[in-house]
Amino acid sequence: MDVSKGAFDVPANVQVTGDAALPSAFDVTGMAVASMADAATAIAQLATHHGAPIAEITVDRNLASLWFGLSFTPVGWELPTVWDAIAGDYRCTDGWIRLHTNAAHHRAAALEVLGLEAGADRLEVAGAVVRWSGEALEVEVVAANGCAALMRSLQQWYKHPQGQAVAAEPLVHWGASRSAGMDDAGTRARASLATAARPLEGVRVLDLTGVIAGPVATRFLAMYGAEVLRIDPPGWQEQGLEAEMTVGKHCAHLDLGDAAALGTLRELLAGADIFIHGYRPDALDKFGLSEAVLRRDYPWLIDIGLDAYGWGGPWANRRGFDSLVQMSCGIADAGREHFGGENRSRFRFRHLTTPPAICVPRRPSRRGRIGWVARCAGRRLPSAAVIGAVTVGTSIPASGFGSAPPRWQ
What we know:
By secondary structure, the protein is an alpha/beta fold.
């Protein structure tokens, strides 16, 4: 993807159909199409490596735009909200601030800083926030281990120490290449082999990411045959996103603060090909899994880290989510200006992710926790990208966080 001139160019081998364009201050549909085209090209190259002829690739702009929203529409039931009751944008004395309170401890931190009781509602929060300077409240909430972001303009972000630190970093950090044999204690005895039709069959992906870029990326891998095992902390549930984020994956719970669970994670790493995580830069170090340790103990492993605010600068270890980053770096403010006024629904643009092209189960299954199958009826968007004769889909339905044991199949 070439973005050096501000345009999202697709590879020459990809045909683009459709004419949709999402309303936004930015070329969101262009990014959707280009990212899908690049991902599809990589899958096609891998299929060719396994004996397939050079594939024709088509990406549809209309479907690509829709995939930047929700891919799943329930039939006969409603999706739960993805947001906590007090999460959102609030007026402050110097603009707007966003509180991210989906996690219980993040909600508690915000309410404690605001001096409110645990059961405070949105009106009470708004009444408290409006008396604060946005920057002061952001500092206090973050210091209390919560999540908040003041809305800054692009110009303010360019001048901010963290904005300058991010601008000095490459878009992607590449580590030194390495190659080594794998000793997985026999866990691959049942593994499938990749084919031209399913070029990621047999590839094992250990997913320790949250919402939303990481789970979307691993969902894409699952649709082309990868075995994806997602790990969340005990009790983690986001029912409004289960249909989107768990399809194609086995999802387990592990408490990494427990020595036995950490040992289980190390066993899983020994059997993995790809490790993708969305922790802050210093988080895995605390569990004895720094980049240096991973490189030493699992030299074959493809180690992919996602970070909200970059890998250097004063905010490198700050908790962040997509909606907060958009507030911090000027995207939300650009949306406000583009659409005019203070319509908060226009502050942000969809998701800052590389979305998958397809996410359609190949056949029904009753796997998953009790109650999920009863409410999983619905329609999923068709493919936005078609890659020759490559087969896309999964036999693993969306089954909920923590619905499987923490082991490779």
